[in-house]
Specification:
250 residues, alpha+beta, Alpha-Beta Plaits, five-stranded antiparallel beta sheet, five-stranded mixed beta sheet, 21% helix
Length: 250
Amino acid sequence: MPKQSNKWLTVHYQPVSLFSLKRSDATSMAAKSNLVPTPYSIQMALLKVLIESQGNEHKEDFEEWIESEFKWIKDLDIYIQPPKQLIVNRNGYKLRYWNQQADKDYRKANNKQPPNIMPMQGGFVFREWIYMQGNLSICCGETEKLDELEKLFSLINFFGKKGCFFQYLPNETQKTEQPQYQTDMTNSFTVQPMDKLGRKSTFNRINPYSSEKATLKRDRIIQPGFLPLKLTATSTRYDLYTRTTDQDPE
């Protein structure tokens, strides 16, 4: 029988700082965090390092090149294996920030002229920061570009907010014929909204420097994700999650 080729890549990262990534349904004042990076954040990280590492070589044909690269990255299916334990730390902060409504009222009453001093107001914001114990694993496919995908992952050093650093572990990379870390409904799981690039999305729609606008449910798809995590302890200040599967990199 013909030998099957490997089409799935699994990479592993060691967290080296706290992690935080606002959920898609969060507001600017009250922002719960995703427990792990979403497929969308992973795809955007891949695009970031792709442009930074290779964009300078395609000055003349950038639009054609980036659309071809964007196509195979957006079509990736991504499965995530959380670390063995997660601790979600809840924090509240008092701060002063721009009063958008006061600014609009002033401009309306003064012939669209901006105020001399930016109006400020006091407020309270809610944020979550996550401590990860163990490695984060990501499985991507199907693709014929495993070598290029592996190189791009090796250049990524953070997911989520800037400063949420991860260390790439090159010796634990795996290439397989079948995907790993698929959902197993026989174990306990936690539901998290997982967004990813839509199949009909284009680079210009997610490019912040383009005049085209991204549309929810077309360029960015949000679906429920089932993480193999069980809530084992909770209080007003933290939540402790434990992974319900024992699968680790060999």
